[in-house]
Amino acid sequence: MRNFAIILCLICAGIYGWDAFEKWLDMSDEASLSSGGVSHKQPEVFPSAMKNIVPIHDVNQYIAREKALSEQKFQRQEQLRQALLEQQQKQQEQEKAARSSVPPIPIPNQENVDLRTEPQSFCFKVGPVSTAKLPSINRSIERAGLLEAVRVESILSADSFVVFIIPTSTQKGAQALAQQMKKKGFQNASVITKGPLLNAVQLGEFSNEEQAQFFFEQAKARLNMSDLRVTRMIGQPTEQVNLIFSSLTDSQVQALRRVCSENRQTLQSCEF
C-alpha cells in the first residue's frame, strides 16, 4: 500500500511538473527574442512588386483580344503606308509637271516694238545629250560664253501602269510571296526593290492603262486577294538630257552652231 501511494505521488508530480516546464521554455524563447535573437520567419512567396499582377481567368478570351489588337495595329500601319505611297506619287507627278513645263515666250506687242532697234532673240534645243558627254560639251559652252543662256532639262522615261500586291514588312517575305505567285501562274512576278513601292510584289507592268486595268480584274478574280492594287508609275530620269538655249542673239546663235559642230550634236528650234 505504501508503494502504491508513492507511485501516485510520482505521477502527479510528473503531470504538474511538465506544465511548469513548458511555461519555462516559452518564457525562455521570449527572452531570447527580446535580447536580439533572430526570428526564423518564412520569406514571402511573391515579392511586393508582383502584388498588382492580375491572373488570367479566360485564356481564350485573352488570346482573342490580343489578336484583335495586333490586327488593328497592322491595319493602321497599312493605312499609313498607303497614305505615304499616295503622297510620294503625288509629289512625283508635281515634280514631273514642273520639269516638263516650259514657260511660254511672251510675244511682244508689235505696235510698241521698234524693229529698227530691238535685237531679234532665238531659242534652241540641243539633245538628247548623254550625261557621259556633258562635261566635254559644258567646256565648249563655257568657251563660247553661253553658260548663262543654257539650262538643263531632264528626259524622263515613259509612264507605266503597275499591278502589284501591297508591300510586306521585309524583302524576304516579299520574295517568298513572289515565288507563290509564280507557282500560281504569274511568271513575271518580281519584288520591287526601290521607290515608293519598296518590298511590293509586281505582277505586271503595262504602258496602257486599259491593259493594266484588264489584267488587274483578271488577277483579282483569280487570286481572290484584297491586297491587290494598280497604280500609275511616273517616268524616271534617264541617262539623257536636253540643253535649252533661250534669248540668244545672232552672234550667240553662230557660237552655238560651232559648239554643236564640235561635239556632233543636233541643233533644233524650241518650237519643235
Automatic annotation (TrEMBL):
Matches recorded under Pfam families: SPOR
SPOR domain mapped to chain residues: 155-232
Protein name from the UniProt record: SPOR domain-containing protein
Region spans: Disordered: 85-112
